[in-house]
Amino acid sequence: MLNLKSKINELNPQFLREIKGRLKTGNIFLIIATFFSVQVTFFMIVTSEIFDDPDDISSYQGLFDWVSFMVIFAVLVIGTYALLNDLATEKRRGTINFIRLSPQSSQSILFGKMLGVPILLYIVILLVIPFHLWLGLKAQLPLHQILLFYVILLAASIFYYSGALLFSLVGSWLGRSQVGLGSGFIAVFLLMNNKAIHGNRTDFPGLFMLIHPQYFIPDSPSTFSLSNLHWFGLPLGKSFVISAGFSLLIYFIGTYFIWQSIERCYHAPNATMVSKKQSYLLTTSFTGITLGCANSLNSEALLSLIFLNVVLFLYLIAALTPNRQTLQDWARYQHIYRVEHPGKHKLLKDLIWGEKSPAILAIAINALIVITSLSGSIFIESSQDLGKLNALASVIFTFSLLLIYAALAQLLLFMKNEQRLLWTNTIMAGVIILPTMLLSIAFHHPINQSFMWFFSIYAPIVFLASPIHTSLGAMVPLLAILGHLSILGLLLFQVKRQLQKTGESATKALLTPN
Q: Which residues contact residue 306 at a Cβ distance below 8 angstroms, ignoring those fewer than 6 apart?
């Protein structure tokens, strides 16, 4: 045991620290005793009541599915809760800063937490696996599919736990509610994305299926819940192994980008979550995956793609927008550079690639990547029931609104209030949610006062809802987009004015002798 502890300490000291605090003899004995008591009782009930006919494969099949989903829910939700709660406790005690000062790398520390914090949960799952495997074999499910399901669950755990680590680093402004919100979001996602609800619907976002391990629970040798999955026409769903490989690739890509953000936030809490260069790569990868999984670009599929991109861009707004102090430093640097190098211009390069510059142009470039891809697909691959001009208008209005949100978020972060991050998120949530709620109460349907609906996040649905296609005309959308441009222009003017004022004031304060 001493040699084992020594080897673990050499490989990952944080992991040893975590398991020392959790692998108490009493905890292990209690878990094992409780588990075997529950499993024996459960097995007796199953054999006496459910399996009246031992040769009925469907009984084993149904139980295998149920146990599989419970394992998924326990690993992802309980594990996420444990990680978030542990890191929140470390922050309250102030020990997280001591951990940061240790000579260990951030990967070693945080990966040690991923391995060590849910260690008791891992023990329970390891105890469940033999029974779960026996059920699958009794249901005559292919062994390689069961083993691939375990691999998918492992990859999903790393992906979701990595997301929990990132959320714990950047969401501290939420206070004690951070733990419940993080694990609750995972629970709601798993339940709302349930295979029993959506089945093999082709209009349901393929990305949601590929990052939910339930869709890789083996059904039977002849059926597969992702059988309709295509990627740019390639029938991935025809093979369980190929679909699983594609899902693992998505988990790998997602985990890679999450850890890029973790690295930045762990070492420099005031840094943005992603660099602008990383954001362009993320948007390109995301667009390739989501657009490729749209089997037929009809109204439902386009709305799903728009929804996914809205989620992505709200994340990019949060991940790319620098805070007040960073902008002050950048504005001062720009002001001094213009004074010392008259006639030279590096502003555009800074706005596109700079780490500390405003994020609005970078978000616009990311939007251009998506708009170009979606527009090409609309005119090339769209189905006959999708009006191409209306579809294109829905995409343009969506990203016009997102640019307005980006400019507003940047302006709000100039506030001098110490709670500006909380205020910014609260105001942004109100701007996104309240217009749709108020319009729904006042008019009930977008056909009434459609001009006002164009200024809400409901705008793409106004174009894609079939009863409204012939009633809009061209003038109302044209006036609405001019309104969008006016709002965006006003916000950009205010951002520029604030930057100039901040740069001049900071420079004067720096150069004025005491």
A: 394, 395, 398, 460
